[in-house]
Amino acid sequence: MKTLTLCALVVIASSAAASAVLAQDAAAGKTSFNKCMACHAIGAGAKNKVGPELNGLDGRKSGTAPDYSYSDANKNSGITWNEAQFKDYIKDPKAKIPGTKMAFAGVKNEKEVNDLWAFVAQYDKDGKTK
Q1: What is the pTM of this model?
Q2: How far is residue 102's CA from residue 122's CA, in Å, rounded to a whole number?
């Protein structure tokens, strides 16, 4: 019985540690967003740059940020941005949307991807944090 209890505690502790590693950290995501700032803006007063502003990305249809000239590939991708779509895209943009104008190799680190989503997803369409 003691062995079974010990095994159960090890499994629970391992699961908790794994969850903590994958937890999303918006502050760390803000640091990661520095890679994006040359082309994208987010937050109060964000404007389109080389890439579209990213306010309200969660739930927005791809290719619909006002006054931004998207590639046909992006406009016709059929994507509505959410956590899963973003994470898949940011790992390899050209694989997710062949023909996109986004010239970025992607973010390969899973924790960084999670943190970046936490940062981006906190902004509503007006650039205010939720």
Answers
A1: 0.81
A2: 22
Residues pairing with 80 in the sheet: 61
Give the tens place of pLDDT for each residue, 40-63. 999 999 999 999 999 999 999 999
Q: Which residue has tokens 């505690």?
A: 9
The C-alpha atoms of residue 39 and residue 77 are separated, in whole angstroms, by 20
| Residues forming beta bridges with residue 123, ordered by sequence position | 129
User: The tokens of 37 are what?
Assistant: 């700032």
β-pair partners for 129: 123
Distance, in Å, from the CA atom of 54 to the CA atom of 47, rounded to the nearest integer, reads 9
Tokens representing 58 are 């969660």
Give dist(CA 76, CA 105) in Å, integer: 21
Tokens representing 66? Answer: 């006002």
Q: What is the DSSP letter of 51?
A: S
